[in-house]
Amino acid sequence: MGNLSCRTDQTEGKNYQIIGVDYDYADVLELEFVAGRNFSRDFPTDEKALVLSETAVRQMGFKDAASAVGEQVNYWTKSCRSSAW
Q: What confidence tens digit (pLDDT) does each residue in 38-59 have?
């Protein structure tokens, strides 16, 4: 999978790197989720899901990680649901 860049508001100049990963990525890196959950094979819709860092959550204007969970994030012509770590 390739990397995609996402800019939520061009006037603010914030760029986000979107990296395609597999289901084991968070476990291998031992990421700890502060809200939401990791990708799961039990949820086919996870193919269109995102995991956001706490920095991305703040920069995107969410109150906190929990408020970002399940929200739609649009980039280019794609829409994804978010989970935060």
A: 999 999 888 888 899 998 888 8
Q: Which two tokens stand for residue 41?
A: 């094979």
Rounded to 5°, the CA angle 70-79-39 comes to 50
Q: Which residues pair with 3 in a beta bridge?
A: 19
The pLDDT confidence band at residue 69, using thresholds 50, 70 and 90, is: very high
29-50 burial, b at 16+ Cβ within 10 Å, e below that, comes to eeeeeebbebbeeeeeebeebb
Question: What is the secondary structure of 52-77 as a DSSP string?
Answer: E-HHHHHHTT-SSHHHHTT-EEEETT
